[in-house]
């Protein structure tokens, strides 16, 4: 029985990887006023970033249960095993939508073989989990082996994020007007990571260069066997900084497998243009 790897567009994997590894991706909904778009299909991240710079405020909506039902029904009809690798339940209701859909579809298809995983990851943190699973599925590995790897990667994935402008976090209701204003005056840049599936600021520094240097130190402190890993860098319309970070990681840690990707509409609409993030494992994978 073939194994289908299903995920959502929050994973931010590059399109060539999605194609090469036959990954099935459901789009998160992006809303601007009364207009609704599908992430990466009817709107792209560069359009979102351009509009955000001009003052637009986007919101996101979870994938409706009916969209999951369609996918799960296809798997049942094709007698496929499906592993849905979900965006963190601490940041979206999409995981719950998939559970609701699975429970309803299994009444119709009692033999449906669907496993839903809450990665507690976001952006390319989730993407690296999905990529590992997709590679293993393509190699013909068993469902149990893939689930073991997904569990390990999900539990040991680091997300180190910095935003360029606190104004975007203010617009999305994530910081106060005062914090955004003072942060802008002082050129304060927060460093954020993901704890228990939620974005948590844990340091603040003044100036972009200091932040990037500190991110490198955090990678050094937390990463294990970095030269053996696939490391991901995501950026929100700031390729120059992403390339700079890539070169620093290559030189300092002798890493050669580094992915750079554009942060998608869903995550990007909350953190804003200029955001960059690094994703890596804090333990060496046994799989």
TrEMBL record:
<dbReference type="InterPro" id="IPR003797">
    <property type="entry name" value="DegV"/>
</dbReference>
<feature type="transmembrane region" description="Helical">
    <location>
        <begin position="258"/>
        <end position="281"/>
    </location>
</feature>
<dbReference type="InterPro" id="IPR043168">
    <property type="entry name" value="DegV_C"/>
</dbReference>
<keyword id="KW-0812">Transmembrane</keyword>
<dbReference type="Pfam" id="PF02645">
    <property type="entry name" value="DegV"/>
</dbReference>
<keyword id="KW-1133">Transmembrane helix</keyword>
<keyword id="KW-0472">Membrane</keyword>
<dbReference type="InterPro" id="IPR050270">
    <property type="entry name" value="DegV_domain_contain"/>
</dbReference>
<comment type="function">
    <text>May bind long-chain fatty acids, such as palmitate, and may play a role in lipid transport or fatty acid metabolism.</text>
</comment>
<keyword id="KW-0446">Lipid-binding</keyword>
<protein>
    <submittedName>
        <fullName>EDD domain protein, DegV family</fullName>
    </submittedName>
</protein>
<dbReference type="GO" id="GO:0008289">
    <property type="term" value="F:lipid binding"/>
</dbReference>
């Amino acid at each position: 029985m073939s194994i289908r790897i299903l995920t959502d567009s929050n994973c931010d994997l590059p399109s060539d990887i999605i194609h090469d590894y036959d990954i099935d991706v459901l789009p998160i909904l992006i809303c601007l006023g009364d207009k609704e778009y599908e992430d990466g299909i009817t709107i792209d991240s560069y359009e979102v970033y351009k509009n955000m710079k001009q003052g637009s405020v986007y919101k996101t909506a979870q994938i409706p249960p009916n969209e999951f039902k369609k996918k799960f029904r296809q798997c049942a009809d094709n007698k496929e095993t499906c592993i849905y690798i979900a965006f963190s339940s601490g940041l979206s209701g999409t995981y719950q939508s998939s559970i609701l859909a699975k429970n309803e579809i299994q009444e119709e298809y009692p033999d449906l073989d669907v496993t839903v995983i809450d990665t507690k990851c976001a952006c390319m943190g989730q993407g690296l989990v999905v990529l590992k699973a997709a590679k293993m599925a393509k190699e013909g590995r068993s469902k149990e082996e893939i689930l073991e790897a997904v569990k390990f990667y999900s539990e040991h994935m680091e997300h180190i994020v910095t935003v360029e402008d606190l104004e975007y976090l203010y617009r999305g209701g994530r910081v106060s007007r005062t914090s955004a204003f003072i942060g802008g005056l002082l050129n304060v840049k927060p460093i954020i990571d993901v704890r228990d599936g939620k974005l948590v600021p844990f340091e603040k520094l003044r100036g972009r260069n200091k932040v990037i240097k500190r991110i490198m130190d955090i990678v050094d402190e937390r990463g294990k066997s970095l030269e053996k890993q696939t490391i991901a860098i995501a950026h929100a319309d700031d390729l120059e900084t992403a390339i700079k970070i890539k070169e620093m990681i290559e030189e300092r840690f002798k890493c050669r497998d580094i992915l750079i990707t554009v942060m998608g509409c869903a995550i990007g609409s909350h953190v804003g243009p200029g955001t960059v993030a690094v994703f890596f494992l804090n333990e060496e994978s046994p799989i």
